[in-house]
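A quick aside before the break. I want you to see a complete sequence-to-structure record at least once, exactly as it would be stored in a machine-readable document. Don't worry about memorizing anything.
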Amino acid sequence: MTAQHPVIAVLGSGSWGTALAILLSRNGAIVRLWGHLATESERLHRDGENREFLPGYPFPGGLSVTADLGAALQGAEEVIIVVPSHAFKAVLEKAVPMMELQTSLSWATKGVEPQTLSLLHEVAADLLGDKPTAVISGPSFASEVAKRLPTAVTVASSSPEHAEKIAGYLHSDCFRAYTSDDIIGLEVGGAAKNVMAIGAGIADGLGFGANTRAALITRGLAEIMRLGMALGGKRETLMGLGGMGDLVLTCTDDQSRNRRMGLALAQGLSIDEAKQEIGQEVEGVMTAQAIYNKARKLGVEMPITEQVYRVLHQNLDPKEAVQNLLGRRKRQEAG
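That is the input. The structure line, written in tokens, reads:
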């Protein structure tokens, strides 16, 4: 093991975890990709690619797959968690006792801990204390990263050294990693944009057009900024890759599972039917409830989030949700 070939454990073998594992391995790291189901990990190992979630992209030679968490973590210099937000705490609780003292932690999970409404860095701090951690977020579809299409993300940490280290692992001629110290802003942007993408999918599915989509994205960004800044995030972060950049991506492209959820709901499908059609986790469904409750607790006005929450969790008709937004009193744009 050398500085040029760090050992990195990627926990989570879905599309994004697989894409990051491939990127890191292409960059020279020794990567252990962990999945919680032995049958899935065995299939990935046998196929030499993730045929279910990221077909057509063979694993580089430095990438191995395992369902043994201890084996994945042994000797790892860095652990990157890439599991759905509702599983984040459980995976971290299992991993922490097995991590070596010098091992550092980062994550590319986007969401909120559903039971406590905690941001993920708060969950990590409860288990790790003041050990430096980092979050990786930005506009990044897994398939485009695997295709080596130009991509840029942000790595945020309270430790500049840790942020630079993670960015160094990720950075390549087709993948640019910026650094930041604003963990809160990056996490809020990454979580809340999924809710807005469901809203954009609903509006497009109902045939409301490009004008409506542009208005929803812009006012959605205003909501995200109000929440992020109320929690201590920075305006420039929420206007950057992990805020506006990720929001535009997920609201406008059908590679977004959350946008596809909105499209399906507009067509009259139930959440379960839409999930079955999409075939992967749709973070915005659970995140909508968490963000809505967090905003109410803080007294932050988030009308788009509220209507998406009501569609998802109170059986509100999508058409009525749009009318509720259009019927709000007129006001100044700022704020």
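Two observations worth writing down. The mean pLDDT is 95. The CA atoms of residues 139 and 246 lie 4 Å apart. We'll return to this after the break.
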